[in-house]
Structures
1.
Amino acid sequence: MTEFKVEMTNVKKAFGPKKVLDRVDLSVKKGESLVIIGGSGTGKSVTIKCIQGLLVPDSGSIKVDGTEIVGMSERQLEQINQKTSMLFQGAALFDSLNIWENVAFGLVEGKKMKKSEAKEIAIEKLRQVGLTPDVANLYPDEVSGGMKKRIGLARAIATNPELIFFDEPTTGLDPIMSDVINNLIRDCVTNLGATAITITHDMSSVRKIADRVAMLYKGKIIWQGSVAEINSTDNPYIQQFVNGRAEGPIQMEIKS
């Protein structure tokens, strides 16, 4: 059995003349929390979409649990993706469903579970992210942004996934709520024994939830290492990004 949950080898993806991924090599061990960092437009979201099979790379290999997914049929991909989940940047809750129905969505629609059983699991998952059962019958427009993130996280872990994607999990949150979400992500992933792939530019999130960090720049992985190595590396790209400096090798395109 492979020790890797995800393996990307020599993956290329372009949209017209724009190279978004340029020979990306990236492996994620089972049970590992990998965080991909990089500025806007560097290919972070495209990387995740390729792993999920939502985008097909122009060339290269992507394996999940040792199985090649590039070229898979839609039905085969559905079977792979039943073991995965995602916390979306804006939580992406369904306005027409109440909170417990949102959390239970994957159980009812994906696993065809009875609603009564799914509701019990949903309320337990809400508890795990620090929300009481009285929240269950509210609707998304009745809760705060921080609560929506927690609800999105509860939905992401409801099916006990093996692989979870986190898309900018702390965007739009204040520093305290960001720390709460980071702690919850760390705890949930640890308790599930799941593999996690997160994309973010929030360095406090990186330090809290990552076992390993990879930096994308102009479609290439230019650095990989542990969280501890971020502080000691002499890589000028990492140094500039981590410290948020305008001056350095990362050139921003600023249009007047």
2.
Amino acid sequence: MNLSSLVIPLLLAAVAVVGMGRRVDVYNVLTRGAEEGLSVLLRIIPALVGLLTAVSMFRASGAMEWLSGLCAPVLEFFGVPPETTPLMLIRPVSGNGALAVASDLMAAHGPDSYVGRVAAVMLGSTETTFYTIAVYFGSAGIHRTRHTVPAALAADLTGFLASALAVRLFFGAP
């Protein structure tokens, strides 16, 4: 038996022992926490459904391909492979969609190609900005994002550009 397979059972046992030592009704606290988790889930589901619907519509409409073609010259200037444009457009919105796009890129170009490496580093160095904002702000009841969205998108853009630079520095130019 592996030590890592014992971590969760030991953690649960430790919580139960500490709770009993402090005379806390562990089961009552557990059910209250689950109840709060369900109420948070009910508050954020509408935002998530809207977000996933918008991503599907964006991909199906052909707007992603049009925007990719429009961005290609600018990206080439900064050393970012234009093939990664769909990934850059989807990543701030959907992690699963970005993973699907990256998988397609790696299937087409190979995981050890420049495009594949840049796509992999982009996935690891950027965030699903709108999903994260929808979940965290929705669960906290915050409706105005004000400076959060522009700052987060600037961080994503920085991550995308730094990804291409890092791959170029560590693995060489294509």
